[in-house]
Write a structure and sequence with these properties.
single chain, mainly beta, 21 strands, globular
């Protein structure tokens, strides 16, 4: 009897393992952006990696891992020049489930991006796009030349401001995470910070013109090109001049 019980337990364990077996599925979408001005991307269970292209086509590639009870799909809609790409599930995964969809997007220069991401990280190498990001807890690591409005409630932000010929504004906000702003010597931005924590920098030029009014601290006030506005509640803010790291 004991042997039969053990065999039944083993059989049940195998059945459960088969039910939760993680498989992989790939999605590929390619769109010409000649008539697309904005792309909305939503992924609540996985990473998003952004890359820029000189071509006109946007390429969306995703790899899904799912069980038999959670099946992923991509909801696609194009309306009035706005392309929406949303990762959906047959049954919404739980906090501890293995289901996730990792997304890689190759986007043409100039297409506006509006991104919502959870339970994954957002990253890019170089972008020349207007960019808006909203997240509850994801870490954001981006390199860009264009306008950026980034918010993650509990995650960290690492943003590298790349040189360009236009004047842009970067808004970086988190409640409980930290913010690191990287910039080059020839592109030191005018920075405003609001924080309950500490602001540090390795750049003498950024720090020498510091001014505090109410809770707003201003740095490098003689700079009239790019502007970075940074806000945290408890997280550290770092203003990093890249060239100084290697001296």
């Amino acid at each position: 009897m004991k042997t039969i019980t053990i065999l039944l337990i083993m059989a049940l364990s195998v059945a459960v393992a088969e039910e939760s077996l993680v498989e992989a599925e790939r999605f590929h979408i390619e769109k010409n952006t000649a008539k697309i001005s904005k792309v909305i991307i939503e992924n609540n269970h996985g990473d998003i990696r952004l890359r820029q292209t000189t071509e006109k086509n946007l390429v969306f590639h995703a790899v899904s891992q799912y069980s038999k009870t959670h099946r992923a799909s991509i909801d696609e809609e194009l309306k009035d020049g706005v392309l929406s790409l949303k990762v959906s599930y047959k049954n919404l995964p739980t906090e501890k489930s293995l289901e996730r969809v990792d997304v890689a997007i190759v986007v043409p220069k100039g297409v506006e991006l509006d991104i919502k991401i959870e339970k994954g990280n957002l990253s890019s190498k170089k972008l020349e796009n207007q960019l808006k990001v909203v997240s509850e807890s994801s870490d954001i690591e981006l390199k860009s030349t264009g306008f950026a409005d980034l918010f993650t409630k509990h995650g960290n932000i690492s943003y590298t401001l790349l040189s360009n010929e236009s004047s842009d504004e970067v808004n970086l906000k988190t409640f409980n995470g930290s913010v690191s702003l990287y910039f080059h010597e020839d592109n030191r931005p005018f920075v405003q910070t609001i924080t309950g924590s500490v602001v540090t920098s390795n750049s003498i030029n950024i720090l020498k013109n510091k001014k505090i009014e109410n809770r707003v601290a201003s740095y490098n006030q003689d700079k009239f090109f790019d502007t970075a506005k940074i806000q945290t509640d408890t997280g550290l803010i770092q203003l990093v001049e890249i060239e100084q790291i290697y001296k």
